[in-house]
Amino acid sequence: MSEPLIELHNLTFAYPGAPRQIFQDFNFQLLPGKHLGLIGPNGCGKTTLLHLIMGLLRPQAGSISILGQEVKKEKDFVAVRQKVGLLFQNADDQLFCPTVLEDVAFGPLNQGKAPAEAMQIARETMERLGLHGFEDRVTYKLSGGEKKLISLATVLAMQPQLLLLDEPTSGLDENTKHRLIHILENLDIAYMIVSHEQDFLNHTVTECCHVHATCCKTDGPSPPKTI
Amino acid sequence: MSAIEEPFSEGVSLAHRLDPRGKILVAGLFTVLMAMSKSYVATLTGLALAIICLALARLPLKKVIVRLLAVNSFIFFLWFVLPLTYPGDAVWHFGPLAATRQGLIFTGLITLKSNAIIIALIALVATVPIVTLGQAMHDLRLPDKLCHLLLFTYRYLYVFEQEYHRLVQAMKIRGFRPRTNLHTYRSYAYLAAMLLVRSYDRADRVFQAMLCRGFHGVFYSLRTFSWQRRDGIFVMIAMLALAELLYLEWRMPGFLVRI
Questions:
Q1: Of A32, A143, B90, B91, which residue is 20 to 30 A from B192 by alpha carbon distance?
Q2: Is 0.90 topped by the overall pTM?
Q3: B214 with A110: Cβ contact below 8 A
Q4: ipTM score here?
């Protein structure tokens, strides 16, 4: 199992109309089982990288391979999204169903599960994340921390093989951050976290890398894992 | 701050327990029939039927009246314009203006029709939560785009309202007070434009988040509707009533009032 989960080869990307290229001949690899932190200044392309992987943005040049398959067209990315989960920066973008249970079940239903099964998966996922009792709560009346944890549940309910988290700690209190750390510790899949919080990364990832226009530079030795 | 209220959607009356699909079907047909009606006898019968449905829904009367007043405030203005402009035999003279008999009859008809339709919609459609309504519409094979539009409008109206309040607060804390000057107009224009841009951006991000969770244009519902005997009976009675309305409209158009 040494085949990379994600492989980006000579990727070039610029936002339409923007003078600057975010990525130029960018190369990147993520190996199975890795817990990687992505760091870098605002605007260096961390979120863009995640969106390119999910096919929400398309590169001008270069190739993307996810789970050993080269992905080019929307059809390929549709398959990718069944296996790779992305937690958005803003939970309000992610939650759109009236009740929590419906929102968590949305992904499994899209995967073709029957309503009863989807509901079962949703309940189990929420149980696992310590969100029991939230099923019938209204999504837009949750607190910021609750929204974030529910969003994570909506992504994990799809049982992804790889998880991408975009600044998961922004706006969270210490308590919720600890819950998040605890949840990530118990995940047995590879994940990548974009974050500006070194402390949070110290607890959750084994390796950090700086996003540059051409590559991701590993930040020296991995930070000590302390809890 | 509260979400958009649906004061009529909760309840245990017969009208609440009926299958939403049957209710939508009946309400839709009733609305079309009423809107097309040209006779007083059919309209009045329709109004009576709508009131019977409303009684079955056992909704808080005060709220129903408030809602009816809101609708009738629009109709109120019709009474000022239509009788004076509709061609026909003059009944009253106000200086150079004259109200016509035909105009008055016509305005009365519109008033009755609108109230019949709105009462029927309150009794049959407002008693369904919006989300269930969307799913029921989908089950009735109405275009998906229409159902999605309804569901998303409902969901994001609240988010946009919050966004609006945030922007207004941001204006207030920097000392903005609306006055009658160019600065105020310009600021409001910016506010409206910013709301539009932000809403568009958010819609984009929401759609992306949905794509990431495997959305491909179809909503699956956790709720399943169960069509029961009482629904069949309700639709059957309603169809008979609608046939009766059609008969009155067709065979006795001039009964009661002749235009």
A1: A143
A2: no
A3: yes
A4: 0.77
